[in-house]
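Quick start: what a row looks like.
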Amino acid sequence: MDRRTVIALGVIGLIFVLLPFYWEWIGFAPQTPPVATDSLSVTGDSLGQSSSPAPLDSTVWTSPDSTVAAGSANDTTPEQFTTVETDLYSARFSSRGATLVSFKLKRFQYLDGSGQIELVPNRAAHPLHFSLPEAGNLVFEDMSFSPSALELKLEKGAGDSTRLTFDGRTQGGAPVRVEYTFRSSSYLIGLKIHVAHEAELVRATRLEVGWRGGLDPTEANRSDDYSFYSAYVRQAAEVAKFDDFEDGQLKEGSAGAIDWVGIKSKYFFVALIRTDTQAEDFEVAATETGVLEAGQQVNRREFSVRLGNRIQDGADPSFDLYLGPVDYWILGQAGRDLDHAAEMGYWLLRPFAVAILWFVTMLYKVIPSYGWVIVIFTMVMKVILFPFSRKNYLQMHRMKALQPKLKEIQEKYKDDSQELNRRMMKLYKDEKFNPLGSCMWMLPQLPIFFSLFTVFKSYIELRGVGFLWLTDLSQANLLLCGFMSAAMLGQQLLTNKDPKQKLLVYGMPVLMFFFFRGLPSGLVLYWTVYNILSIAEQWSVERSLPPVTPAVVVADTPRKSAKK
């Protein structure tokens, strides 16, 4: 085995040692196979209440038939549920706490066929919660509210919105109102909370809104899904991500100009967004526990987030709730940098990743098959990168011509490293050959390759999408990985014909098999097609090149001694 082979294998080994740290830095863990009509209709409730709330004044709260106000903390009114249907989701609200108890996404299904994705976690009956710490730590879920309707329906294309209000009273009789606004074809839900400064709420100037229990995993590969779990906060126009645990615990928080806080899984996102002004502080708390879940040993992550808000006289705190997919374009339409939750890599690579995502999205509108979109996209990328790869092949061709003379120099001056380097540099200079040229022509391709990895590792549009024998382009597939390694072996055999580098030729495809075996098959499909095209490209380029002519080294001209 020659020196170059040893160095190449050493570099490959170093890459594999450092690879887990790189994955951790970008928030990715490789997968392992798991075990085992346009209209708006609003229906009032059975009590004949209108979906449009009455003005919030003292007449609304009159309760002459009881000493305890209806909807107070001591009220025994039976729990009521309101169902809200839009073209994107089906939500269910409870009168106990005026909060969500179910939120199902109509466009996204569990891949085991068990139904629509549920964003309300099983571990929290009321994940969305409200409290008034300065009013004896009044928690809304201890109160009963009266809903303005028991059923609301907002159909696609209505281009309108509708409201659902919950009216309640504290034990002392102070009125509280929670109002939700639903919009057609939007994952954003408006939220407004009114607290009357009466009775025990006279000093209530702080409102806390939070989401607890995190999100339940939605993918068969639980370990991979949990590896994406994280919290995000936008503070002072900067988005921060929190996913670093210490001894299984994570707790962050600070005061300042807070725009929003959110929790993300691999494919879904929940965010609390202050819209009328900015929240005064936030808190993120999370745990990471090693458990056996669905037959898999996983590090289960559970996040909770909270926004602290100041209640101003005459102004009701207003929010938007986002409950939906981690889709770059949808989050971008929501504004306020929510699209940062759809990670596009390091800031330097972000423009490349967004450009790739845009091109793939546009291509899908013409060819509604993501499998074929990836194949055609690979072809386009090969055409774009052809000038760089051709330069690389030319460099390799010239290097073959220099190899016999380089070996001769290495053998002749093997005991004199200084002279060896001088002779090699002279040969390169005489032949006008840059030994780093092949590496330089590879550099422009690296941002594209890294961006492709970033885009495809959690691209929600690939989730559950099949192609040929592949059932899900977002999951790993060993057979496709084998095809990719075979294509790489063919390229290696065509490129490297040096018998001393046989270990490198056969070893590289094996190493790449283990590298790619846990990655989404959409990404592996790209590399498979790319390797096949590279074989055809290299064969075509080599046929157009002249035969290799060994270089001739011009001997040093002896220096003449000065005449006396």
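That is the whole record. The chain is about 35% helix and 25% strand. Residues 209-343 form one domain.
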